[in-house]
Every structure is written in C-alpha cells, then in structure tokens.
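Per your request, structure below.
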C-alpha cells in the first residue's frame, strides 16, 4: 500500500503549486478565449487531443501491468475469481440503476416533445459520422468477438481497454499457475508499471494546456447557440447526473462508511482535468495511485479501476437512455414501455467497452438506435441534434463515470476486507496528506531499489 505524506512532517504547498489551481485557471482562460475569440478558439482542440494522446500512450501498458500484478498478488486464483465476480456484479447493478434513472427522468420531463428539428450542417455531419462508426458493430456476437484482440500487440494498439483487460487476466492466470517460477516475470511487470507512472507524472504537467485547449474549443465552436437551443435536455441531464451522484453513489458510499462529498473533494484534481478534457481516461493512472493511497489494497485497485472503465460507465448509461428517448420524442416515435425496456437491456450490453474517450458515448448511442431503427426511423436527425451538444454532455458523462468508478473501487475493497478504514478517514479529512508528486517519487524510488537488488543478486 502506498504511504501518504506525513501530516506534520512537511509544510503545506502554496495553492499555486497544486495542479488543480492551474487546471482551474486554464479552464477559466479557455472559456474567455472561446467567448472573445471564437474563430481562433475553434482551432485549439489539438491542445486537448495532444494531452489525451500523451496519456493514452501509456495507459495500455500501465493497465496491463497493474492488473497482472494485482491479480497475481492475490495469491490464488479462487480469491481472484471472487474479487472479479463481486466487481462485475456491482458494476451490473449500478449500470442498471443508471439506465433506469435516465429512462424515468426523460419520461417525466419529456424534453424532446415539441422540439423544432433543425440541426445545422455541421451537426448533421457529426451525426452521420457517429452512425457510420456505429454501423461497424455486430450486436452480441460482435461484442463477444471484440473482447479478444487479434494479436498480443493488437490489444495495445487498438485503443480498446477491454481487450487489454482480457489479455491481462489471461497472463495473470498463467503466471499464477507457474508458482515460484513466475516471480521474476511478476517483478519485471511491476517495475514496468512504476516506470509508466513516472512517465505519467511528467505528462501531467501538460494537463493545464490540455484543459485550456479543450474548453476554448468547446465554447468557441458551439457558443451560446448550443447552450440555449437544447438547454432543457442539457439541464435535465446534468441534474440527473448530480442526483445520481448525491443519492445513489452517496447512499452506496454511506453504506461503505465514507462521505461522498469528502471523496469528491479528495479527487478534485482529477475532476478538474476531466472537466477540461472531457475524458475520464486522462486521469486513469492517477486514480490508480490515489485510491491505493486512500487505503485500498493494490490488488483490488489494479483490477477494479481498469475494469470499471469498460463495465461501470454510470454517466454514459444515463446519457444513453436519456438521449435515445429524447430522440424518440423529438422525432414523434412512440415507444411503449416494453420497447423501452428492450432498449434499456440492449444498452446494458452496448455500454460495455465504451471506455472514457471523448465522443465514445455518441457512437454507443448511435449503435443502440441503429439496432432499434424500425421503431425510431428518423433517428439520424435526432443524433445530429445530440451531436451539437455532445461535447457539453460529454463532460457530465466523464465526471459521473470517474466518481462512480472511484466509489465502486472503495466499496469492492471494503467487501474484500482490503480497505484500511483509518487511512481512508485520514485522507478524506485532509486530502493534502496525499501528495501525488511525493507518491510518484516513491513509486520510482521503489522501482530503482528493485533494480539495484536484482543487479546485486546476479
């Protein structure tokens, strides 16, 4: 378990030395640039894309090594299977709750009824692109085939976290079957993971730049028009996400023995990065380190967080049911309750693997509507409308996904008796006890020590 910095052994950092301060400043600057110079701001998206690509560059090897070390570290396959089963069951239940809440809210508020269907040319193109990507899906069989990469290297180059997860589980099981002979391989993978965390520490210095570019592009491209034309749907979606976090995740957190608001304060740096980049994937490596520092065992964090990025996308699930039923209402398609339930069950499957990448939610929504085009024949127009505000909704999706995965990890850790409650209480009371710079240094230092020991023994 990672150690936090000593409470009385260091001076608190001034605010300008914290990452969240510069990310917040960058977001504010991006909003101003987007409002004052919209044409120029529209060309700044590459800054956000560059930062996200830098993070994605190391995500696959980091997750692979972390999962393998985590599962193998459990000591036996039965224990690993129990952890995996509890994790998946929790994710399925939370996914169903999120989908049902989205369906209930959109049926009550009916934001699509009476809407003037006039998407712009740019929105029509974005909607068509999403449908084109969605057309490549093949339902249940396609989902199953998509779990397995075409090659070992393909799992790392495809950008699909779920394939990395499957490969990592197989490798972990194989190493576990080797017994003592697999110890050296496990040690090597642990060292690689620590090297990747060192790279991530360097990459995070670019987070404010990415947040600035992403926010400037969002405001400059969409402007006030998008903020007003479909405001009802956006407000309903944001409020639903907030209620889900406070009531559902808050209730789950309370049952697990911690406060949801204190937890949100604890991960504020990561939330601000997600707010600026609209991608929860950008902070996945930091969440691995931070939740371990909060008291969760490394083996639990290493399996639960990466799995959650494919199987526990609460914000995306709320978006899927609200978006699909909004489009049905806007196009005048009547969906009986049983049809809505069928759509919900289909989305329970299609939402898996829609990792925290910007825009993945829109493609998943389009894929679901393609499967139900016989009852929503004019879905393409509705998708074009959603595309116009998807960037704003993407932020709420990503934030909800991140909080949901963090809470889920601590809950599963508690179920496994793998959570240091005293440690969790300490860091939630005083988040400054967890200094990410110090933790990254500790990780790199541990890796160097292992190398020295290996060199001396040989």
């Amino acid at each position: 378990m990672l150690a936090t910095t000593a409470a009385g052994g260091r001076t608190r950092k001034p605010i300008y030395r914290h990452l969240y301060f510069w990310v917040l400043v960058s977001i504010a600057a991006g909003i101003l640039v987007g409002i004052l110079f919209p044409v120029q701001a529209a060309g700044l998206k590459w800054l956000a894309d560059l930062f996200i690509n830098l993070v994605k560059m190391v995500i696959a090897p980091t997750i692979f090594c972390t999962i393998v070390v985590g599962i193998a570290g459990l000591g036996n396959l039965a224990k690993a299977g129990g952890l995996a089963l509890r994790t998946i069951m929790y994710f399925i239940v939370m996914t169903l709750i999120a989908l049902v809440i989205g369906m209930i809210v959109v049926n009550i508020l009916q934001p699509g009824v009476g809407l003037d269907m006039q998407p712009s040319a740019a929105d029509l193109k974005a909607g068509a692109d999403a449908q084109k990507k969605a057309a490549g899906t093949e339902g249940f069989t396609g989902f199953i085939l998509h779990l397995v990469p075409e090659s070992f290297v393909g799992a790392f180059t495809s950008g699909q976290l779920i394939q990395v997860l499957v490969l990592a589980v197989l490798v972990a099981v194989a190493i576990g079957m080797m017994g003592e002979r697999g110890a050296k391989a496990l040690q090597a993978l642990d060292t690689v993971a620590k090297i990747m965390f060192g790279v991530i520490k360097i990459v995070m210095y670019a987070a404010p730049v990415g947040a600035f570019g992403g926010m400037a592009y969002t405001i400059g491209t969409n402007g006030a028009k998008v903020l007003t034309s479909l405001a009802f749907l956006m407000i309903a979606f944001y409020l639903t996400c907030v209620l889900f976090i406070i009531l559902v995740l808050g209730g789950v957190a309370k049952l697990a023995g911690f406060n949801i608001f204190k937890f949100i304060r604890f991960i504020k740096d990561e939330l601000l990065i997600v707010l600026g980049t609209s991608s929860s994937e950008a902070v996945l490596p930091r969440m691995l380190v931070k939740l371990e520092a909060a008291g969760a065992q490394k083996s639990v964090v290493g399996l639960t967080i990466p799995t959650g990025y494919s199987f526990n996308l609460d914000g995306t699930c709320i978006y899927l049911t609200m978006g699909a039923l909004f489009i049905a209402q806007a196009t005048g398609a009547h969906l009986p309750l049983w049809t809505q339930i069928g759509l919900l069950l289909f989305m329970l499957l299609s939402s898996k693997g829609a990792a925290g990448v910007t825009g993945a939610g829109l493609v998943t929504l389009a894929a679901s509507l393609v499967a139900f085009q016989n009852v929503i024949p004019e879905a393409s127009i509705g998708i074009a409308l959603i595309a116009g505000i998807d960037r704003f909704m993407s932020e709420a999706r990503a934030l909800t996904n991140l909080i949901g995965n963090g809470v889920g990890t601590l809950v599963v850790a508690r179920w496994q008796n793998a959570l240091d409650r005293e440690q969790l209480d300490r860091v939630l009371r005083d988040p400054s006890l967890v200094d990410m710079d110090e933790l990254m240094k500790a990780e790199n230092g541990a890796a160097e020590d292992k190398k020295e020991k290996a060199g001396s023994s040989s």
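The chain has one domain: 27-457.

Regards,
D.
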